[in-house]
Design a protein that fits this description.
Elements: H1 5-20, E1 24-30, E2 40-46, H2 49-64, E3 74-76, E4 83-87, E5 91-97, H3 98-104, H4 106-109, H5 121-132
Helix pairs in contact: 1-2
Protein name: Ribosomal silencing factor RsfS
Subcellular location: Cytoplasm
Main location: cytoplasm
Length: about 130
């Protein structure tokens, strides 16, 4: 794994914020060996433009609330709400409408890169409760 500790922290926090807003198909890709400009991509999909923007806002808020705050150096695509990119230097977040996610297939484009495991904490709690018989 080539991502820095900071990139890993940002990516996991962004992925969890997206999951909290019901994003779909959340994937974290370690692109550090392939790109010199960033360590990881966080990909997430939403079924409509309003949800894309809500996910983006949640990610920005979550990363601003980290002990070592993070603000994107660039935010693109917000006007259309179909594909918003947040550039945190170490991590680039792509929140796409489901149709754009399927069409552009960034995870297939970067299929040779390893992924970073992410499990939604709420899903993990539900599974843990189900496993313990609660």
């Amino acid at each position: 794994m080539t991502v820095s500790e900071r990139a890993h922290e940002l990516a996991i926090a962004a992925a969890q914020a997206a999951a909290d807003k019901k994003a779909q198909d959340i994937v974290i890709i370690d692109v550090g060996d392939q790109l010199a400009i960033t360590d990881a991509f966080v990909l997430a999909a939403a079924s409509n433009e309003r949800q894309v923007l809500a996910i983006v806002d949640a990610i920005e808020e979550a990363l601003l609330n980290l002990p070592e705050k993070a603000k994107p150096i660039r935010r693109e695509g917000e006007r259309g709400g179909r594909w918003v990119l947040l550039d945190y230097v170490d991590v680039v977040v792509h929140v796409q409408h489901t149709e754009e996610r399927e069409f552009y297939a960034l995870d297939r484009l970067w299929k040779d890169c390893p992924t970073i495991p992410f499990v939604d904490r709420d899903l993990a709690r539900v599974e843990a409760a189900a496993g313990s018989g609660e």
